[in-house]
Specification:
98 residues; alpha+beta; SH3 type barrels; four-stranded mixed sheet; 18% helix; globular
């Protein structure tokens, strides 16, 4: 990850519903995109395990990079699904820290 901790704002998952996301992809290479999807799938398996393990997700909205700690309940081709129907667009996720 290129950002320093000073440039990433930690937020609560409940705020994700009010965030605006640009349409462009944040990652540059097909390999990074493939790796992100694999990590998203692994995060979903951890979230759906008996221990409901949380992961940290670094994503970027219109204001800059954010970090949220949450449980991933599902993954589609375009979104990560969180509690209460909240979603994060995959194309705006820089990193999933498991």
């Amino acid at each position: 990850m290129n950002a320093t901790p000073d440039t990433i704002k930690r937020i609560e998952k409940e705020l994700i519903d009010i965030i605006s996301f640009p349409k462009d992809e944040v990652l540059k290479s097909p390999e990074e995109i493939k790796d992100r999807k694999a990590k998203a799938d692994k995060a979903m398996m951890l979230g759906n395990s008996l221990s409901n393990n949380k992961v940290q997700i670094v994503f970027e909205d219109i204001a800059g990079k954010k970090l949220v700690e949450t449980t991933v309940w599902g993954v589609t081709d375009r979104y990560i699904l969180l509690k209460r129907g909240m979603t994060l667009p995959l194309h705006r996720i820089h990193e999933i820290i498991i």
